[in-house]
Amino acid sequence: MRFSLRLNNDLAVAEYVAIAQAAEASGFDQIWVSNDLFLRSAPVILQAMAHATQRIEVGTGILNPYTIHPAEIAMLAATLDEATGNRFNLGLAAGAGEFLKWVGLEPAQPLTAMRESVLAIRALLRGERVALEGSFLRWSGEAYLRFAAPRVTPIYIGAMGPKMLELTGEIADGALPLLFPPEHYFGVLPHVEAGLARRPAALGPLDLAACIWVSLSTDAGLARRVLAEKVAYYGHALSPLILARLGVEQAEFRPIEQAVMVERDMARAVSLVDDRMVRIGVVGTAGDVIERLEPLVAAGVEHLSFGPPLGPDRLEAVQLLGEVLRHFRRSA
């Protein structure tokens, strides 16, 4: 089995270094950092983490082809692979429409943009001249990477919708689907498998990471509060599909949204978050996480990816997740 850690790009750089070292010591295979607009730059963070570690792979979770041109993404991928000793993974997605609107961008033709971007970036990393007459990219054939990339960097796609999940199975090296709640894996898998049916054999197997939210602590109550705060903040914006999976009505989040956004009373908001809502992620002790994820592993999940909030003490959470890793590796 493979295990990865995912972090938002809202921490001090020194904290990422400490977390990366703890993750490597705990046996994690990968660590991913988001690149949300107007927070810290993920590529810079990844370089700092890689410099402070020896083995763990680092990845962008995710870059998009609207704010960074695919040509520059290929440059970044090849350079980070060179700088990290081939420990870099390139996470791509169409981007969050809400964030892109902040800077006047519309994520037009997301499926086409992702397909053409992945194929162009991979060709550049292979050292090819790239000619494209696509809908998103139009290159004359003069485009090529003017230094030798150390390898063709693995490309992971962050996918949510059915069509993007199919595309991921067809053309990506790895998949980073968010599972809200974790049991949504069983809804994601058929779409990925539909893409796998069209996958070129030369690409090899797909690394399908089951990306979940976790909040861990030796104090299960503290762990619950941290996840409840995240649910309180984002709950009103959850899609109808996620709400249906949780068995929650949109109207139930209105008083929570009022408490967070208007009253600025997080304690009251958290008190309104019930156990059904918290089921969007995994909360509690290492034993609670193991119990919740056993059915996924039994069903064939080979890569568990743990994402924020992680817990009241992130370093403690990484160490506790080490117990989860050891359990599943012993059971494999």
Task: Describe the fold and architecture.
The chain has 332 residues and is α/β, with parallel strands linked by helices. The protein is 47% helix and 16% strand. It has helices spanning 13-26, 42-51, 70-84, 97-102, 110-125, 162-171, 185-196, 220-234, 240-246, 254-262, 266-272, 275-278, 286-298, 314-331; strands spanning 2-7, 30-33, 57-60, 88-92, 130-133, 138-143, 155-157, 174-175, 207-208, 210-216, 282-284, 303-310. The longest helix has 18 residues, at 314-331. It starts with a strand and ends with a helix.
Strand content is 15-25%
Total number of β-strand segments?
A: 12
Content-based structural category: alpha/beta
**Percentage of residues assigned to helices:** 40-55%
From the 3D structure, determine the CATH topology of the largest domain: TIM Barrel
Specify the CATH architecture of the largest domain: Alpha-Beta Barrel
Mean pLDDT rating: 95
C-alpha Rg (nearest Å):
20 Å
**Spans with pLDDT under 50 lasting ≥5 residues?**
none
Question: How many helices does DSSP assign?
Answer: 14
What's the CATH class label of the largest domain?
Alpha Beta
What is the global morphology? globular
Largest sheet: 10 strands, parallel
Distance between the termini: 7 Å
* CATH homology superfamily of the largest domain: Luciferase-like domain
From N to C, what is the helix and strand string?
EHEHEHEHHEEEHEHEEHHHHHEHEH
Number of domains: 2
Strand order, sheet with most strands: 9-8-7-4-3-2-1-12-10-11
